[in-house]
Amino acid sequence: QVQLAETGGGSVQAGGSLRLSCAASGYTSSSACMAWFRQAPGKEREGVARLDGAGLIMYLNSVKGRFTISRDNAKNTLYLQMNSLKPEDTAVYYCAEANQRYCSFSERHYVNWGQGTQVTVSS
User: Could you report the per-residue pLDDT of 17-27, keeping only the tens digit for each?
Assistant: First the structure.
């Protein structure tokens, strides 16, 4: 059973940066698609960035140019570097692992989820 644990959340002012980490324990596949999702209060969870097993990266339009997803297979860790943060980025951020190499932002692809980490951006 894979367990995912996010760290790195916190409170920052607009324009600031945070780096989220997602450490995977248990059996993991370096070729599995992994992604970051977020859920703001009163809103549905949405996909923010994903990295599939072939190295293809996709971003939510509103974070393009500001967020960068990456993974270190040797450390079984997924990252999300978030720069130029805006108040609308405030949400609980989750990492997720799919059970396949290729995926979309559809949650049906993802079988393992972390517990989430809070990101709060003040204006």
Answer: 999 999 998 87
